[in-house]
Amino acid sequence: MSNDSWRDAAPTRRDTIKYGGAALGGGLLAGCTDNVGYSGADTEGNYSVTMAPVGTVEFEEAPERVVHYFPDYGDMAVALGHGDSVLSMGLPSRFHTTHYEELDGVSVDAESLTRLSDNGIDRELFYELDGDLHLIDPQWLINNSAFKLEESDIEEVGNTVAPFIGNTIFRRTDEWHDYRYYTLYEAFEKVAKIYQEQERFTQLKQFHDDVLADVQADLPPADDRPNALLTFAAANEPEAFYPYRVSDQGTNKKQFRDLGITDALADTGIEGLSTTERGQIDYETMLEVDPDSILIRGHENKSRAEFEDTVLAFMKDHGTASELTAVQNDMVFRGGPIYSGPLHHLFLLERYATGYFPETYSEELFDREELAAIVTGEE
After folding, report:
1. Domain residue limits at 105
2. Which of 132, 162, 197 is the last residue of a domain?
3. How many CA atoms lie within 13 A of 268 on its CB side?
4. Nearest to 364 by CA among 377, 379, 345, 351
5. Do residues 220 and 358 share a domain?
6. pTM, 2 dp
7. Is 365 left (phi over 0), alpha (psi -120 to 50) or beta?
8. pLDDT in tens, 332-350
9. How far apart are CA 299 and CA 283, in angstroms?
10. pLDDT tens digits for 160-196?
């Protein structure tokens, strides 16, 4: 993986992907690097990508077998036409793929994905998957005690199987994440460089920018936009909720920020869910806040009607929940996926624009055929 030989076996395809000298010199997991841009090609056909916390990874060709944990990065691979490269997910059930059904020619075989996290993560699984690249933030793996992985495990896998690169972007509440964050499209651009799909990325970003500009041009005045309490509670009859902060700049709140939905927990002192913060709130606490709207994650496998017939129906019959303004006004929604990539985001933007502002947005907000043509390369 470096200029030094770490094994005697003949070079394999994954030997064409290696850590750059800066990353090796400071240790694989040394933390944030000051050099966060792309490095130019060292020789013809070679290129490198630099991303905190790992640093620089050098490539001779795009990876064909990529180990994933985060569905947001998996969605990026699909968007770039490389869904077939995705080997795994931390929890495949959290890789929501129904939106691909609306894009002709776009799909991913989610059933074939290996589950990484199952009462911990077995280090040997990385050897079995035998990927060309691990598109995973290694600090995420090390700092989640449930995974039961040590830094030495990740060092070994990175140096004897394939490099790690990636950044935890879905939330920004983890104390251990003391290195640079990336926006959705900053991270997406890195992934596009990995796959050598810069032109397709440029087209997708322009598509996103145009859709967002059209939506934001018609938004109601800021004073007429509701606040939201974002939570996680997967039960059909929820009594306790893990709170998130809408104001958190993580990528899974981008659709709410884009629509000007504000944080109902602002100035309450209630912290958002993180690796170490696992506190819950109940209906009494909710009633003290009394948000304009409530977003509940953990129900992405339900339709809107199914959600209303179960979760919302329970809340309407609950002695305390029924007093909430959001419940009385039918402003309780599914909260969206925990991990959302660029294709996810476009559909979520449409879902919440039409849900929050039905008098302004009532139809499809973007052209499915045009988007599918970019993804499939048939534009």
Report:
1. 13-197
2. 197
3. 21
4. 351
5. yes
6. 0.89
7. alpha
8. 999 999 999 999 999 999 9
9. 19
10. 999 999 999 999 989 999 999 999 999 999 999 999 9
